[in-house]
User: Which sequence fits this backbone?
C-alpha cells in the first residue's frame, strides 16, 4: 500500500508515494536521490544518517517517511549557502582535517551543528565528546572532530547561524 | 613549488569539499537505471549440512526476478574463492586449502555463510522473499575456539584439513634458542590472547554490477581497496570473465582497514548474476551482515618466553602462536600470522636468537584476514607486553630496559634473526622525545595524587617497529605470495597544461587526492588546482596493486616520482630544442626549464603545449605528447618505528579504565603532509585503544553464534572513550625510495594495544593483579581486582 507524503527538504517542497515502512532516510536517498545522508548501521547507533527535522537533529533511520509529513527537513546538501560558501561547521571540519573517508561526515556535521546550538555556542572538550556518543567514526579517532566542533562554535555565533 | 603546497606543507584536502557537501559518490549512491536489488540469505548456523533448499514459494513473491543457490554455481562451473598466498609448513608442504565455494553447496561452516541470492525489483522485496526460502539444515556441533581447535576430538571444519590444522609453520632455529634459554639469568613467560576484532569501516561493503550484452562487458562497482586485484582474482580464478571484459570501479569508499582488500562472495555473485538477470544489480550490506561476513582480524592464542642475562640484555625469544583462520582461507589470510607477524618479532631490539612456531587453524567462524596492521600489531603486542613484564620482574625501568636493547643507530642496515633487514632507524631519540612529551619524570607524583583520589594510575610504553610499504616482488614470490607488489603511475599532461595522475593505489580516507598532488606540485611545479588524481577504475588507471600495508606513498608515491622523472627528462629534450641549447645544459627548477648559467628559460606548460602542437619540435628524436608511465618495485620494505606512552587511571570500585594521557612519537621518514599524517596516527591509535579496552568479536562456544553482532553488542570506540593525543616526530629518511618516506597508516593501531595494556598492568600491579586480557572492560578489570584481593586474603 503506498501512501502520499509531502515535506520541505532544504527549502524545497517535495512529495512522493512511499510504503508505510519506508524510512525517512530511504525516502531521501532512494526517492529523492539525495545520497549525502548515509546509512552505516541497522540499529540506530552510528549516526551517519543524522539530519535536521524542524530544526532538531534526528537519526533519519529511526523515523518513518510518513512521520515527516509537513516537516522542514535539512540535510547535508542544504547547509552550504553556495558551493563556495560552506557552513562554518563544514569549514571547520575542513580546516581541522576532521574527516578522512567522509562516510560518517554528513551525520557528524549535522549532529555538531545541533550540539553547538543546544549549548548556546558554549562548549568544552568533555561536553563535545559526551555529545558525540551517537556518532561513530572509524577513521579520525575523534581528535580532529572535537577540535573542529570547538572551533566552529564561535564561528557559528559570529556568522549568526 | 611554493612552500604552501609542496612536500611537507599542511595542505587542506582537495577531497573534502565533496564529502562535506554530501557530494561523495559511494557505491550505494550510484543511480543505475532499471536496477534490481540483491539480498543474500545467510546461514543462521555455525555448522550444518544443507539437506535441501526450496525456493518455490520465494520465487512467487512480489517483485522477485531471480533466485540463485550454490547449485546454480556448480552447474555453471564457477570456481571457488581463492587464497593467494601459499605458506609452506615446517616440512615444506603447502598449507591445507579446502575449497571455498562462493555460495554453500552442501555444508555451511559459519554463521553468515552465504546460502542463496534473491534478486528483486526492490531491496525490500528481495528481503521479504528470502524469508520464504525454506532451507532444511541438519545442525552439527561447531568449533569456534582457536585455543581448542587442535584438541583431539575437536569438530573438524574440513575433511581435507585433519585436526583443523591449516599449517604448522616455524621460523628460526629452535635448538639454538633453547641453548640460549639454558644459559639465561632470567626468563620471563607470558600467555596472552590477541582478541578477535571486527573491522567496521563505517561504509558497509557494497557492490553493483551491469552487463553490456552488445560488447560482453561487465562493470562491477565495489567497495574495494584494490580494484585491479579484485578484477584479476574474479577473472583468472573465480568467474573466468576475460580480464579485458571486466571493468572494476571502486569509487569513493568509506574506510577499509584491510577488510575491503579481499574478494568476497557477495560481490562475486552480484557480478556473475548481472549477465543472467539482464539488468543491473545493486547490493549493500546491512551492518549485521558486515559483522557476520566481513573478514575479521587478529585472534591469536600465544605463549612467549624471553631470555635475558643478569643485566637485562635480551638473549633469545621463543613464541608459540595458534592463529585462527576462520572457516575458509580468505585472500591473503595465510600470510598474516606468518610473514607479517613472526618476521617482526625482533621489534626494535638486538635479540640475537628468535624462534617462532605458528599453527593456523580452521574454526566455524567468519574468515580472518588482514586488519589494520595485519600481523604486526600481534607481533608488537607480544614483544612489548613481554618486555614490560620483564622490566617489572627485574625491577628495571621499562624505558631503560628498552634502551638497553635497542638496535644502535650505527647498526643499520640491520639484519634481524627473523629474515627482515631493517633499512634505517634511530630509536633512542624517539623514546627520549616521547618521555619528554609525556612528562614521564612527573609520573610518580601523578600516581600519588591519583591514589589520594582513590584511583589507580599506571603508565605503559610500546616501542613498535613495522615492515610496510608492501613489497619487494621477488621477496614476496620467494615467500609464496601469488602477485607482484609494485605500484604503477601515469602522469598525463593535457595540451592546456593541467595534469592527470593515474595511480594504481586507492584512497578510502588516506587523502591521496591531496598528498599525491602535493608530490607532483612539488616535483613539477604545477599548481595544486591544476592536478587531478585519478584512482579506483581499472579502465582508466594502470594495473596496480591497490592500498594496504601502508604502501600507497612509499610504493605508489615512488611510482609517481619515477613517472615525473620521465616527464622532466623528456621535457629537457623539448626545452633544449626550443631554447636552442644542448640537453646537457638544461636544468629543471620550480616548473621551468633553464639553460644553466644563462637567463634563457621556458616554462613546463609551454613545453607541454609544444609536445601536443609539435610545429617547432625535435620530431626526429622525441615523440609528441606528454604522457609517461612508471612502475616502481621497492628494493625493501620500509620500517616506520616509534614509541607510544599511555597513562591510565582505573577506578578500583568499577573497574573502569580511563586514558588520561597518550603520547606517540613516530619516525615515518619524510612527511608529505603533517596534517594528514597526524590524522592517520590518531585514527590508528583509537583502533588500538578499541582493541585494548572495548572491542571483542565473541562467538558462543556452544552454538557458534556471533554474540557481538551489532553496535549494541560490539563496543566501538566513541568520542568520550578516548582522549586527545600528543604527537611528535623524528625523521630518518628511508634510504631506498625516492621520497625518503616510510608509511603511517597502520602505526597507531600496531603500537597502542600494548601501550594501553602495559599501563593497565602498571596501574594494577600494586594491588597484586598479574594479568588482564584484552579487552580490559570494566567487568574484566573488576574481576581481576576481585581475584587478586581474594588471593591476597587467602
Assistant:
Amino acid at each position: 500500500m503506498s501512501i502520499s507524503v509531502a515535506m520541505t527538504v532544504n527549502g524545497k517542497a517535495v512529495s512522493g508515494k512511499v510504503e508505510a515502512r519506508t524510512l525517512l532516510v530511504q525516502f531521501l536517498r532512494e526517492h529523492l536521490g539525495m545520497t549525502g545522508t548515509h546509512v552505516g548501521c541497522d540499529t540506530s547507533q552510528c549516526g551517519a544518517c543524522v539530519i535536521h527535522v524542524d530544526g532538531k537533529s534526528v537519526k533519519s533511520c529511526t523515523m518513518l517517511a510518513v512521520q515527516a509529513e509537513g516537516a522542514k527537513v535539512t540535510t547535508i546538501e542544504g547547509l552550504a549557502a553556495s558551493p563556495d560558501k560552506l557552513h562554518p561547521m563544514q569549514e571547520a571540519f575542513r580546516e581541522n582535517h576532521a574527516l578522512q573517508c567522509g562516510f560518517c561526515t554528513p551525520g557528524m556535521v549535522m549532529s555538531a551543528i545541533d550540539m553547538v546550538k543546544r549549548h548556546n555556542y558554549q562548549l568544552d572538550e568533555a561536553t563535545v565528546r559526551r555529545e558525540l556518543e551517537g556518532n561513530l567514526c572509524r577513521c579520525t579517532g575523534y581528535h580532529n572532530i572535537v577540535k573542529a566542533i570547538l572551533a566552529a562554535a564561535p564561528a557559528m555565533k559570529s556568522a549568526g547561524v | 613549488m611554493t612552500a604552501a603546497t609542496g612536500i611537507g606543507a599542511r595542505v587542506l584536502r582537495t577531497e573534502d569539499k565533496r564529502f562535506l557537501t554530501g557530494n561523495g559518490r559511494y557505491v550505494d549512491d550510484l543511480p543505475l537505471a532499471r536496477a534490481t536489488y540483491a539480498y543474500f540469505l545467510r546461514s543462521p548456523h555455525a555448522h550444518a549440512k544443507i539437506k535441501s533448499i526450496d525456493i518455490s514459494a520465494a520465487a512467487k513473491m512480489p517483485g522477485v526476478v531471480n533466485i540463485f543457490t550454490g547449485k546454480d554455481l556448480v552447474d555453471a562451473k564457477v570456481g571457488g574463492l581463492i587464497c593467494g598466498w601459499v605458506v609452506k609448513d615446517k616440512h615444506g608442504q603447502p598449507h591445507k586449502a579446502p575449497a571455498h565455494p562462493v555460495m554453500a553447496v552442501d555444508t555451511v561452516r559459519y554463521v553468515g555463510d552465504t546460502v542463496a541470492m534473491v534478486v528483486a525489483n526492490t531491496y525490500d522485496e528481495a528481503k521479504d522473499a528470502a524469508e520464504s526460502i525454506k532451507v532444511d539444515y541438519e545442525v552439527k556441533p561447531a568449533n569456534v575456539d582457536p585455543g581448542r581447535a587442535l584438541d583431539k576430538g575437536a569438530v573438524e571444519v574440513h575433511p581435507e584439513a585433519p585436526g583443523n590444522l591449516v599449517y604448522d609453520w616455524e621460523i628460526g632455529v629452535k635448538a639454538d634458542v633453547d641453548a640460549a634459554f639454558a644459559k639465561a639469568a632470567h626468563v620471563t613467560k607470558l600467555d596472552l590472547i590477541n582478541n578477535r576484532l571486527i573491522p567496521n569501516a563505517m561504509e558497509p561493503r557494497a557492490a553493483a554490477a551491469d552487463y553490456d550484452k552488445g560488447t560482453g562487458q561487465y562493470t562491477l562497482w565495489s567497495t574495494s581497496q584494490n580494484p585491479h586485484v579484485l578484477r584479476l582474482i574474479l577473472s583468472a580464478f573465480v568467474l573466468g570473465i576475460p580480464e579485458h571484459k571486466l571493468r572494476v570501479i571502486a569509487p569513493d569508499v568509506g574506510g577499509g582497514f584491510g577488510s575491503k582488500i579481499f574478494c568476497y562472495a557477495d560481490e562475486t555473485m552480484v557480478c556473475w548474476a548481472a549477465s543472467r538477470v539482464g539488468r543491473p544489480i545493486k547490493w549493500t550490506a546491512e551492518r549485521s551482515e558486515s559483522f557476520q561476513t566481513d573478514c575479521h582480524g587478529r585472534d591469536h592464542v600465544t605463549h612467549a618466553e624471553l631470555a635475558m642475562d643478569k643485566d637485562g640484555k635480551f638473549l633469545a625469544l621463543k613464541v608459540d602462536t595458534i592463529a585462527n583462520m576462520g572457516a575458509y582461507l580468505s585472500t591473503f589470510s595465510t600470510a598474516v600470522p606468518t610473514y607479517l607477524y613472526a618476521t617482526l618479532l625482533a621489534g626494535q631490539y638486538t635479540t640475537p636468537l628468535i624462534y617462532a612456531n605458528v599453527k593456523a587453524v580452521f574454526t566455524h567462524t567468519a574468515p580472518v584476514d588482514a586488519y589494520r596492521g595485519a600481523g604486526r600489531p600481534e607481533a608488537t603486542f607480544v614483544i612489548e607486553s613481554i618486555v614490560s613484564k620483564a622490566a617489572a620482574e627485574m625491577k628495571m625501568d621499562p624505558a631503560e630496559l628498552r634502551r638497553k636493547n635497542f638496535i644502535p643507530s650505527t647498526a643499520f642496515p640491520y639484519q634481524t634473526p627473523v629474515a627482515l633487514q631493517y633499512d634505517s632507524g634511530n630509536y633512542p631519540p624517539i623514546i627520549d622525545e616521547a618521555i619528554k612529551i609525556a612528562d614521564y619524570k612527573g609520573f610518580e607524583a601523578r600516581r600519588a595524587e591519583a591514589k589520594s583520589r582513590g584511583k589507580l594510575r599506571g603508565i605503559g610504553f610500546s616501542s613498535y617497529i613495522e615492515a610496510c610499504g608492501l613489497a619487494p616482488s621477488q621477496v614476496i614470490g620467494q615467500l609464496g605470495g601469488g602477485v607482484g607488489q609494485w605500484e604503477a603511475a601515469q602522469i598525463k599532461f593535457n595540451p592546456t597544461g593541467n595534469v592527470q595522475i593515474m595511480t594504481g593505489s586507492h584512497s578510502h580516507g588516506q587523502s591521496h587526492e591531496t598528498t599525491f598532488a602535493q608530490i607532483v606540485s612539488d616535483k613539477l611545479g604545477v599548481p595544486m588546482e591544476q592536478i587531478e588524481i585519478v584512482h579506483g577504475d581499472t579502465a582508466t588507471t594502470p594495473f596496480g596493486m591497490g592500498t594496504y600495508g601502508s604502501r600507497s606513498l612509499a610504493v605508489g608515491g615512488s611510482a609517481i616520482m619515477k613517472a615525473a622523472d620521465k616527464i622532466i627528462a623528456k621535457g629537457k629534450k623539448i626545452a633544449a630544442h626550443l631554447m636552442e641549447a644542448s640537453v646537457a645544459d638544461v636544468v629543471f627548477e620550480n616548473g621551468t626549464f633553464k639553460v644553466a648559467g644563462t637567463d634563457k628559460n621556458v616554462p613546463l606548460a609551454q613545453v607541454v603545449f609544444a609536445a601536443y602542437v609539435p610545429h617547432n619540435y625535435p620530431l626526429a628524436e622525441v615523440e609528441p605528447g606528454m604522457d609517461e608511465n612508471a612502475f616502481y618495485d621497492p628494493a625493501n620494505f620500509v620500517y616506520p618505528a616509534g614509541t607510544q606512552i599511555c597513562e591510565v587511571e582505573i577506578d578500583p570500585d568499577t573497574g573502569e579504565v580511563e586514558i588520561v594521557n597518550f603520547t606517540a612519537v613516530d619516525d615515518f621518514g619524510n612527511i608529505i603532509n603533517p596534517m594528514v599524517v597526524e590524522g592517520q596516527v590518531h585514527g590508528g591509535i583509537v583502533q588500538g585503544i578499541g582493541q585494548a579496552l572495548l572491542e571483542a568479536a565473541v562467538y558462543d562456544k556452544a552454538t557458534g553464534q556471533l554474540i557481538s553482532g551489532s553496535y549494541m553488542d560490539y563496543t566501538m570506540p566513541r568520542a568520550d572513550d578516548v582522549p586527545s593525543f600528543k604527537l611528535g616526530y623524528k625523521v630518518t629518511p628511508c634510504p631506498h625510495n625516492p621520497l625518503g618516506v616510510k608509511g603511517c597508516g597502520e602505526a597507531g593501531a600496531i603500537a597502542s594495544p600494548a601501550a594501553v595494556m602495559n599501563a593497565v598492568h602498571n596501574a594494577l600491579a600494586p594491588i597484586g593483579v598479574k594479568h588482564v586480557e584484552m579487552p580490559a572492560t570494566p567487568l574484566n578489570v573488576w574481576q581481576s581486582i576481585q581475584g587478586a584481593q581474594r588471593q591476597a586474603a587467602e
About this structure: Chain B is about 30% helix and 25% strand.
